[in-house]
What we know:
It is built from 19 helices and 19 strands. It has helices at about 15-30, 75-80, 95-110, 110-120, 125-140, 160-170, 185-190, 195, 205-220, 230-235, 235-245, 275-280, 295-310, 320-325, 365-385, 410-415, 435-440, 455-465, 485-495, and strands at about 1-10, 30-40, 45-55, 65-70, 85-90, 155-160, 175, 200-205, 225-230, 250-255, 285-290, 315-320, 325-330, 390-395, 400-405, 420-425, 430, 445-450, 475. It has a seven-stranded mixed β-sheet with strand order 8-7-9-10-12-11-17, sandwiched between helices. The protein is globular and about 85 Å long. The chain starts with a strand and ends with a helix.
Amino acid sequence: MKINIIFGGxxxxxxxxxxxxxxxxxxKLGYYAFYYRDYQSLIRGGHNYNALxxxxxxxxxxxxxxDLLVALDDNSIKIHEKNLKKDxxxxxxxxxxxxxxxxxxxxxxxxxxxxxxxxxxxxxxxxNMQYAKExxxxxxxxxxxxxxxxxxxxxxxNGTQGLAKGAIESGLDIYYAYPxxxxxxxxxxxxxxxVEGNYLVLELENEISVINAAVGSAMTGAKVMVGTSxxxxxxxxxxxxxxxxxxxxxxxYLAQRPGPGTGVPTYSLQCDLDVARHxxxxxxxxxxxxxxxxxxxxxxASEAFYFSxxxxxxxxxxxxxxxxxxxxxxxxxxxxxxxxxxxxxxxxTSYEHTTKGLTTEDPEDTIEGFKRRLxxxxxxxxxxxxFEMFKIHGNIKSKNLVLAWGSTKGAVLDAIKDLDCKFLQxxxxxxxxxxxxxxxxxxxxxLIIESNSTSQLSGLIAEKTGFxxxxxxxxxxxxxxxxxxxxxxxxxxxxxx
Length: 497
């Protein structure tokens, strides 16, 4: 059983409220749900929509064809009616979203008492309940969503919440940021819990201030993280080089958005892999990690702090809007490997320096400085092998290999079900696992799936393994929207013939 619903309307009408409400309820009833947000860079008006897919089986992406359209305005019908299944249904006709909630629950066959319990958590319960009852009475049951027995402890969580939770539990002291979509939600998530979590959240005037304040705090021994998107990350470039030279541990959350320039600011692409790997001038060690779901964001945030503190390096966790704001159904049982503070008070300098922190221009001292940094890179690479640098999904014995990273994970997992495919998901971008080359060499077909136009992962694979992936084996999407299940599955099948 799988049900696909679109909630459409103008910005400010409440389509997100309805989608999140139903998603939470579906998970409480034992179902797996995946929720995607599509919105314009507008506060009011325009057209926003939210896609919810829920099923009795794990689901990590949305379908193009829908069973139910919840239309808060007529424009939503014009835009999405073409994707309605033959037996699909359109819910419309009222400007109160709690009325829609009641009608929606009746259509799906969900007990009104469950909605009542949810509405008790909101303000103006009596008023909202009245509208909900009117909505419930206005429709008839078209589906039958009953509670199912679930053996796993499930949670409904987005990538932002996963990353924030991982940072807090890793002992975060200070989070600095300047708002920039799609990194901004982490700023809000951390700010809400700073008192109970005993850490500080500060919004500064720009990204240059953010990274420099982080450096100053890290020098005193604080565990520091900063958050930004592509344009802000560019501004941090010089100071990231300073971190590399002066051996200053800072964790950087890079939430990609389509660029260059302002790009498509409220949508999602994977265009910043290369800049994360190469940001800054000169040669210095860094860590680049790419989670593909909220649990991995939680785990890799901790690993970023671990390596940053132990080796005194900048660690970058790279995400995007699709991962940051989509809501996944995840297993709730996770444990972190916590890092210890290892920063000590000493002399820090942006110049080449001796082991005592004394600036130098001596040729031999310069060579020794490079050797120290090269050794750090090697040590990080060796220790990273103790962690899960990549994951294998699907048919582990298949000769058809799919490579992907980051937020494309969910769509790939759904698309390869029942296909003769092995999916290798790369978590550690830098350092890069040597074992990946072995998997590539054993494969008959190698496919790359990315949300960008130049296949930056292909460049990384070529650099690290010497393997060149042909253009015909690259499945690239760069309309700033995520992969949908049916379209991706069809593209994979074409290339496996």
